[in-house]
Structure formats: structure tokens, C-alpha cells
Amino acid sequence: MMGEAVALDQLASQIIQCRRCPRLVAWRERVAREKKPAFADQEYWGRPVPGFGDHQARLLVIGLAPAAHGANRTGRIFTGDRSGDWLYRAMHKAGFASQPSSEDVHDGMELTDAYVTAIVRCAPPGNRPTGEERASCRPWLRAELQALRRVRVILTLGEIAYTQALVALAMNGITMLRPRPPFRHGLQIDLGPTGPLVVASYHPSQQNTFTGRLTEAMLDDVFARVRAAIGSFDLSG
Predict the structure, then answer these.
(1) Are 8 and 55 in contact (CB under 8 A)?
(2) Does domain 2-236 fall into CATH 3.40.50.300?
(3) pLDDT per residue as tens digits for the range 11-61
(4) Edge-to-edge strand ranges of the sheet holding 52-53
(5) Contacts for 210 with CB less than 8 Å, ≥ 6 apart
(6) What is the model's pLDDT at position 53?
(7) Considering the entire predicted model, what is its pTM?
(8) How many helices (H) and strands (E) does the chain have?
(9) What is the rounded (10 degree) CA torsion for 182, 87, 69, 169?
(10) Is beta strand 52-53 parallel, antiparallel or unpaired with respect to 114-118?
């Protein structure tokens, strides 16, 4: 168990120092300098954002990228923005998070049996990382998948996270279904004895939550099914 903790801590240190993508480096640092007026008195993180959570997690939650004035400001994934409000509220209700909101890295939030990460580690302009940027960041996700040895369920938030998670799993040697099932909210893919159960959900972005495409009940249902799936692994040994 100590090995996984050391591996993830070392990986986080490497991620924080990454400067592979010039466009993303320029944008995240510009946002950190110019700031949003509401946060003008705060010091922005302005660097790549590592994963966060329980190093013995059986649930891995994968999002798209840090928000410019969320994780790029606070330094913790899904923290300080409305998407994070939705995510951690649902995780708290399902018993994975110690509190229903994540405001900053000093707020005492702890995750139990869950780890949260993203496909891209730097805030992208317009929340749209390029294909090249997604590929450049993929080794970090692959390394996390290798370090998080107890993961049994992967919850992907949005179609890009779904697709990129399956690509990373395949590159790590997990056998994939062919053809790849198209993304849809609530989709579950069992990758067999050597792979995890992959669950797909709409991303809790404002675009989805403000329009009603994703409701609190829908997200709660996804986490209830994730919790039940983890319980079934316990029963099966």
C-alpha cells in the first residue's frame, strides 16, 4: 500500500512541473496573472493540477480539464467551481466525500475509496483541449491507472473523458470491446476479469446542468449504481 502512495505522490510532483503544451502553459499562466475580479485578492495556482483522493480507491472519477478560475485557481481538481459543486455534492451523498463542497485545498475535504483526476491537467482556452494536447497529457492518466491498483470502477464525465479513458486503458493492455460502444449517459462497460467497469455520465458542466441535460437526480443515480457495483465486487470476492 505504501508503494501506491509513494508512486502517486511522485507522479503528482512530476505533473505539477509539466510544460509540454505551450498553448496551455501560456493560457493557465495568463489567467493566473489577470485573474477574475471576484478572486482578485487570491493567489492563483496557475500550474498543472494533479489527481486528488484516496490512494487505495476502488472508484476513479475522470473529468476533462481544470476550470480556468476553479482548479487553475485553487490547485485541486473540481474545486472552486460549479462543476465541482455538483460532483462533490453527489460524491458526499454516496459516501465517497467527507463534505458536500470543495472550496479550496485547506477546507478539510477528504475522499474515501475514490480518486478524482482529469484527461488534461492544465486549464484550456474555452474548455477545449486539442487532440494533440489530450495525447500529450495521456501518459499521466496511464501512470495513474497503473498506480491505482485497486480501482474497480471508472466513472467518466463527458464524452471526451469516456473516449480518452478507454484509449488509455487499451494502451495499458486492457482488452477493449470492438466496436467501441458509443457514449451515452448511464452506459456501463464491463471490461472483464482484468479490467474495470467503466461508467459514462454527462459532465456536470454549467452547459449541461443549466439546461437540464444533467439533473441532480441523474447524477445521484449514477453514483448509486457505482456504489452498488463496488459492493458487488466485495460480494464476489
Answers:
(1) yes
(2) no
(3) 999 999 999 999 999 999 999 999 999 999 999 999 999 999 999 999 999
(4) 52-53, 114-118, 59-63, 153-157, 197-201, 188-190
(5) none
(6) 97
(7) 0.95
(8) 8, 6
(9) -40
(10) antiparallel
